[in-house]
Amino acid sequence: MNGPGRRRGIRRRIAALAAGAACLVALVLGVLVHLWTVDDIRGRGEGRAFNAVYAAMDVYHRTGALADGAMLDPPGLPAELRDPADGNRHTAYDGRVVDGVGPSAWAAQRTGGPGSPVLAVQVNLGPELSHVPRLDAAMAVAALLALAVAVPASVYGAGLLARRLQRVAETATRISAGDLDARTGPVAGRDEVAAIAATVDAMADTLAQRLRTERQFTADVAHELRTPVGGLLAAADLLPDGEAEDLIRARVRDLRDLVEDLLEISRLDAGAEQAVRARVPLAEVVREAVGRTGFAAQVAVLAERTVETDPRRLERIIANLVANAHRHGAPPVVVTVDGPAVEVRDHGPGFPADLLAHGPRRFRTGAADRGTGHGLGLTIALGQAQLLGAELHFANAPDGGAVATLRLAD
Questions:
Q1: Among 63, 64, 281, 336, which residue carries the largest CB count within 10 Å?
Q2: On the CB side of 237, how many CA atoms lie within 13 Å of its CA?
Q3: Under 8 Å CB-to-CB from 36, ≥6 apart: which residues?
Q4: Angle at Cα 47 formed by Cα 42 and Cα 49, nearest 5°?
Q5: How far apart are CA 398 and CA 96, in angstroms?
Q6: Res 334: pLDDT
């Protein structure tokens, strides 16, 4: 997924999380407020009923009359209050609504010994409980208002976080693509994102330093080997003709070619190479490059095109691809020119999976059945293609064989 898609994904996730958290908090608070309110109304109602029974019992014992609201053995008295055997006052909640009265809080006490009437007082809690739905509605409105504020705020905050993360991700992507000079730079804040950015920059610094050291070592070794290898080649030419001389001369030439390849890679790595561009017919350059390799290859021209490129470096790329096809593939090797694209195909086992996944790597030739070599030919071809601003892709044909496609800029 592209960067903006990831940013939108982060925003959506954080907004959804904030909305979910706000809804959960609003729900929990709403339920708690509802329960607390109902419990408070019931508690206050039972307290009022309890006190009313106390006052009514005092009036009843002194005058024998019932105070206002007091009743003896009322038919609606809850069952648990009908036989208060201990003679103490008791309260109960009755959720029933009878003739528009209720829910109610009851309090009751026996007027005398066992078997005496029970004096009870009923407190109607209906009016107070009728306000609870309005309280619930107010809580719902408050929750919606909280969501209306929390979600945009979380989206804005998520956007800030996503932009900071995207800077780090873009830097990591550039580093993985080979741009070792890429850095995130200072990131606002002292949180984990800033720590990640600093870590990525430090990693890039360390990686660049190690790679520069390795490249310098390779260049120094190749440069130091160039003179003695030249001397070896000259000495081999002085040997008397024979099988041993041919073998030694071939091995010394291989060593010379390896040193030259290492020097070329070092120059490409160091950015010391510069393309000298000219307008040339692509098909003609390809034919000359294939002819100079000394390998048999069919050249097919589907569409002629004139391109602006460095013909010497273009020949180097084609020669390396054709040589690789012969050394690691199988004939026939076919070179096809189609407009600005050049395709080199063999009919061998194809490129190994590691090369297709990660590209050519120096001193790695892939599968053993692809032959021997130092793994530098394709690396040099890729480096020269990048210098020319061209694209070099590696694939395997459906019916077998390796396919390398060089696409030049028009």
A1: 336
A2: 6
A3: none
A4: 95
A5: 81
A6: 93
Q: Could you read off the pLDDT of 5-45 as tens digits, one per residue?
A: 455 566 677 777 877 887 888 888 888 988 999 999 989 99
User: Taking 60 as the threshold, does the pLDDT of residue 152 lie above it?
Assistant: yes
Cβ(74)–Cβ(84) under 8 Å? no
CB atoms within 10 A of CB 97: 12
Q: CATH 3.30.565.10 spans which residues of the chain?
A: 278-407
- pLDDT at residue number 370: 43
Cβ 61 vs Cβ 110: under 8 Å: no
pLDDT for res 367: 47
Q: Which residue has the higher pLDDT, 262 or 374?
A: 262
Bridge partners, residue 341, by sequence: 338, 407
| 329, burial (CB in 10 Å: exposed 0-12, middle 13-18, buried 19+) | buried
pTM of the model: 0.50
CATH 1.10.287.130 residue ranges of the chain are 210-270
Q: Is 158 helix (H, G, I), strand (E, B) or coil?
A: helix
* Residues in CB range of 1: below 8 A, 6 or more apart: 9
C-alpha torsion sign, points 43, 48, 49, 53: positive
Which of left, alpha, beta for 28 (phi over 0: left; psi -120 to 50: alpha)? alpha
The closest alpha carbon to 161, from 185, 191, 200, 183, belongs to 191
At 289, list the tokens.
């490059």
CATH class (in words) of the domain with range 278-407: alpha beta
Kindly state the tokens that stand for 298: 């069919």
Q: What confidence tier does 389 reach under pLDDT thresholds 50, 70, 90?
A: confident
345 forms beta bridges with 334, 403
Query: Residue 194 in contact with residue 187, Cβ under 8 Å?
Result: yes
